[in-house]
Design a protein that fits this description.
The chain is built from seven helices and five strands, in the order E-H-E-H-E-H-H-E-H-E-H-H. It is α/β, with parallel strands linked by helices.
Length: 230
């Protein structure tokens, strides 16, 4: 039997990274799951989802990494208790205060190190460009630039590719893709501020709820509030 190609999937426990994992799983890769805690307010709940999703897919190769220094650096409402997580404004073009400065670069550096150490060939990340709240580290230009850095900064015989299968999808398309692949969306957690019931009013909750409404599907998780405009 041919050995499966070894890859790394960055898995936060959220919906996007779970659909990303479902795509990788459908392509019959040997998945190594990377979960990174960075001092976020919903760290415990996200880690629970990560472990449950890995168990759903029988992923045994899991790496938990803590980069709590991002909390000390601050600059985001996800990290700093003195900054209130703002209510979603889906019409705004401003970068919301939930943006964690250069977070994806920190995470990808860890993923590249692990990939090079275990000879993995690809890193899957569930970044979404269209409705990612305008985060600058979710854009195609960012990943193209990071790929060039990987090419220059790893051993000559290392050929690691960043794969972003959701990059140009809408939340509606992500939900349809997840449902078609039987992704465990009921196990995912997207809320920025709550670890019990999802708040329904942060950027992440609002984008998710709008996606389910547009997909004409029922979101399987519970919410404290479902805004009327959704």
């Amino acid at each position: 039997m041919k050995t499966k190609e070894k890859i790394i999937v960055l898995m936060s426990g959220g919906m996007d990274s779970t659909v990303c994992a479902a795509i990788a799983y459908s392509e019959f890769y040997d998945i190594h799951a990377l979960h990174i805690n960075y001092g976020q307010k919903t760290e415990t709940r996200e880690e629970q989802s990560f472990n449950e999703i890995c168990s759903y897919y029988s992923i045994d190769n899991r790496l938990h990494v803590d980069i709590g220094y991002l909390k000390h650096i601050g600059g985001s409402s996800l990290l700093d208790n003195s900054i209130e997580i703002s209510k979603a404004d889906l019409l705004s073009k401003e970068i919301p205060n939930s943006y964690v400065p250069f977070r994806n670069a920190n995470m990808l550096c860890i993923a590249v190190s692990w990939a090079e150490a275990i000879k993995a060939t690809k890193i899957y990340i569930g970044a979404v460009q269209e409705d990612s709240s305008g985060y600058p580290d979710c854009r195609k230009d960012f990943f193209d630039a990071f790929q060039l850095m990987i090419n220059q900064g790893t051993k000559p015989d290392t050929h690691i590719q960043i794969i972003t299968p959701l990059l140009n999808m809408s939340k509606k398309e992500i939900i349809h893709t997840g449902n078609n692949l039987n992704a465990p969306l009921h196990l995912t957690w997207s809320c920025y501020g709550s670890e019990d019931k999802a708040c329904g009013i942060c950027d992440s909750c609002a984008l998710r709820l709008r996606g389910f409404a547009q997909a004409e599907c029922i979101d399987p998780i519970e919410y404290e509030i479902v805004p009327k405009y959704l």
